[in-house]
Write a structure and sequence with these properties.
Elements lengths: L1 H20 L4 E19 L4 E2 L9 E11 L7 E7 L2 E7 L4 E3 L2 E3 L4 E18 L3 H4 L4 E20 L4 E22 L2 E12 L2 E15 L2 E17 L2 E17 L1
Antiparallel strand pairs: 1-2, 1-3, 1-14, 3-4, 4-8, 5-8, 6-7, 8-9, 9-10, 10-11, 11-12, 12-13, 13-14
Length: 254
C-alpha cells in the first residue's frame, strides 16, 4: 500500500504541474482498498481444487491505485493506468483428496495454501465525440482497449505429507474496454467493464461506483467490483475464479 501511495503522490505532483502548464488536460488519480472475496477453483497439473472448500482461502482487503489522463486532441487516445493487489492465504485439514503439481494431497492432511493474482492495467480509450457537450457535461461514454497483465502465483504445502508445491504464471491479456458516467453537481455514477473471451478462456473485470466531490479537486467514491478469471491451460494452469467485493477510494482531479 505504501508503494502505491508513494507512486500516486509523485504522479499527483507531476500531474498538477502538467495540468497547470497544459490547462486542456484532465488528470485524475485515486487510491483505495477493495474487499476481495474469492470463489471457484484452480488446477495445476492435477485436479480442480476449490479455493474455499479445499484451500480455505479467506477474504482479504487489498490496496489499489490508478491514474487517468485525458485531452481534447482527436485520434490520439486517452490513457489510464491501474494496479491492484490480489493475495489470498488459507490453512485447513482437508476432508477430500486432490492433486496439485502432480502430487496427491490426501484427506485428513494439514495444508497451507496461497494464491496471488496481482493485476496491472494499461488502457487506451476514446470518448464518444460531442456527447459531453450535448449533455452539458452530465454524461460521458468511453471505449477502447486494455492490456491487463496478471502476475500469478499458487502454492500448496503440507507438513503432514512433506509436500511443498508451487507455480508462478504470467498472463498478458488484451481486453475490450467500455466506461460511462452520469452526474449532476457533486455526485456522479460511474460504470466500467473490461472483457475478452477466446479458446475457452474468458476474463471479465467490471465495477460500478458512486462518487462525491465535497470540494473542488477532491473526490471520494464507494463501489463494487466483480472479476471472473477463466483460464484454460495457460502455462499448465486452469481456473474458474470469481473475485468480488465492495471498495472505497479517494483521489484528486485537476
Amino acid at each position: 500500500m505504501r508503494k502505491i501511495l508513494g507512486l500516486l503522490t509523485v504522479v499527483l505532483f507531476v500531474s498538477s504541474t502538467a495540468a497547470n502548464a497544459l490547462p486542456l488536460l484532465t488528470i485524475e488519480a485515486g487510491a483505495g482498498a477493495v474487499q476481495e472475496q474469492p470463489s471457484g477453483w484452480i488446477n495445476y497439473q492435477g485436479t480442480n481444487a476449490d479455493v474455499k472448500n479445499d484451500l480455505n482461502l479467506g477474504d482479504e482487503t487489498k490496496p489499489f491505485g490508478w491514474v487517468r489522463i485525458e485531452h481534447p486532441l482527436p485520434i490520439i487516445p486517452n490513457v489510464k493506468i491501474e494496479a491492484t493487489k490480489y493475495n489470498f492465504t488459507g490453512s485447513r485439514t482437508i476432508t477430500q483428496q486432490f492433486q496439485f503439481a502432480g502430487k496427491t494431497f490426501t484427506a485428513n492432511a494439514d495444508i497451507d495454501s496461497e494464491l496471488r493474482l496481482d493485476q496491472y492495467d494499461l488502457t487506451l480509450y476514446w470518448g464518444v465525440p460531442f456527447l459531453g457537450l450535448a449533455t452539458l457535461g452530465t454524461t460521458h461514454l468511453n471505449f477502447g482497449l486494455t492490456l491487463k497483465y496478471i502476475d500469478g502465483y499458487a502454492s500448496v504445502k503440507s507438513s503432514t505429507l512433506g509436500l511443498d508445491e508451487s507455480t508462478d504464471f504470467q498472463v498478458p491479456l488484451p481486453m475490450l474496454y467500455g466506461q460511462g458516467d452520469f452526474g449532476v453537481g457533486p455526485v456522479r455514477v460511474n460504470a466500467e467493464v473490461k472483457w475478452i473471451g477466446y479458446s475457452g478462456n474468458q476474463f471479465l473485470d467490471a465495477k460500478a461506483e458512486v462518487r462525491y466531490s465535497p470540494i473542488p479537486l477532491l473526490f471520494v467514491g464507494a463501489g463494487y467490483r466483480y472479476e471472473n478469471l477463466k483460464i484454460d491451460d495457460i502455462e499448465d494452469v486452469s481456473s474458474d475464479i470469481k473475485i468480488k467485493g465492495p471498495y472505497l477510494e479517494a483521489g484528486l482531479s485537476f
